[in-house]
Specification:
The chain is α+β, with helices and mostly antiparallel strands. It folds into three domains: 43 residues, Uridine Diphospho-n-acetylenolpyruvylglucosamine Reductase, domain 2; 114 residues, Uridine Diphospho-n-acetylenolpyruvylglucosamine Reductase, domain 3 (2-Layer Sandwich); 109 residues, CO dehydrogenase flavoprotein, C-terminal domain (Enolase-like, domain 1, 2-Layer Sandwich). It is built from eleven helices and 14 strands. Helix 9 runs antiparallel to helix 10. Bound molecules: flavin-adenine dinucleotide.
Length: 291
């Protein structure tokens, strides 16, 4: 099916893009990789009057280690973070997730920031970002603000950007100690969205105590779900099988999956339980330098 008619804008600079978005207000929509927006338009699930294509803003096509964090520019594609040395060094959770997002064709076009802005509860990146405590830089013609990811992801396909704002960068904090992380995703076939998936992150002090922990779930609620209660349980504790089992049980209780073509709700809940435990085991082994 063809998408509904729209006006197409192709700014040559960030300033130009931001003033166009300001001028268009609610009638304007950013076009990044187009891997979610164009299918939605073709299915008539979205009908923006104006598309502001940011693909000429090549200055935003970066992945780099900045002071204290990993910075992902708005035009960095999923493929740019696969096997990336800075990603591996700063965010094991992100490195683990990167090869699991979609398929190679989609990864070559789709952007990390676009996926985060899209807020699809079946999308992989927002679980990773919630687990690692990322933040989003929102820019508009009147300035910039930094939004913690937990405030950015509002609900089903809803973010907290204001009219005229776009995401220009995503920031992942550098862990303070020895860190490990994993993204475990059950999918029906390569390239599919998750049946259920879990992002885990652990940061350890020199004596092995957990100083920071992250657990977030994909495709089992109306948005990617940060399991704060399980994270709080872990912080300040010494890792153990029992502790990780308890955190996994909390995650399984916290989710609210629906039965659909990918499986019954109770099956997905069981997957969350098993994958949370396994993900914490893997994060711990990695933090200790065991894998
Ligand atoms: C076959 C297929 C399989 C897929 N499988 C997966 C999967 O397994 N896991 C997964 O996570 N995703 C999957 N996706 C989605 C894919 O990851 C998309 O790339 C991603 O969701 C959107 O990124 P994009 O750059 O393509 O954004 P677009 O499609 O261009 O935009 C998506 C939305 O985000 C907004 N947007 C984009 N960039 C910005 C910005 N910088 N600032 C503000 N708003 C912005 C747009 O206005 C639009 O509303 C799949 C897609 C396809 C087609």
């Amino acid at each position: 099916m063809y998408p509904p008619a729209f006006e197409y804008w192709s700014p040559r600079s960030l300033d130009e893009a931001l003033s166009k978005l300001q001028e268009l207000g609610n009638d304007g929509r950013v076009l990044a990789g187009g891997q979610s927006l164009i299918p939605m338009m073709k299915l008539r699930l979205a009908a923006p009057a104006n598309l502001v294509d940011i693909n000429n803003l090549t200055d935003l096509a970066y992945v780099r280690a900045d002071n204290g964090h990993l910075a992902i520019g708005a035009l960095a594609r999923h493929a740019d973070v696969v096997d990336n040395a800075d990603v591996k060094a700063i965010s094991p959770t992100m490195a683990s997730a990167a090869p699991w997002v979609a398929d190679p064709l989609v990864r070559n076009r789709g952007t990390v920031a676009g996926s985060i802005a899209h807020c699809d509860p079946e999308g992989d990146w927002n679980s990773v970002m919630l687990a690692v405590g990322a933040s989003v830089v929102a820019s508009s013609s009147s300035g910039q603000r930094v939004i913690p990811i937990g405030e950015f992801v509002v609900d089903f396909f809803t973010n907290s950007l204001d009219e005229g704002e776009m995401v220009t960068e995503v920031r992942i904090p550098r862990p303070a100690g020895a860190a490990g992380g994993a993204y475990l995703k059950l999918e029906r076939k390569i390239g599919d969205y998750a049946t259920a998936a879990v992002a885990t992150f652990l940061d350890l002090a020199g004596d092995g105590t957990i100083t920071n922990a992250g657990i977030a779930l994909t495709a089992v609620a109306s948005k990617n779900l940060k399991v704060t209660e399980a994270e709080q349980l872990l912080i300040g504790q010494t890792p153990s099988d029992e502790l990780f089992g308890e955190a996994a049980a909390i995650a399984a209780r916290a989710c609210d999956p629906e039965s659909d073509v990918r499986g019954p709700a109770e099956y997905k809940r069981a997957v969350i339980n098993a994958y949370t435990k396994r993900g914490l085991d893997q994060a711990f082994a990695q933090a200790k330098g065991g894998s």
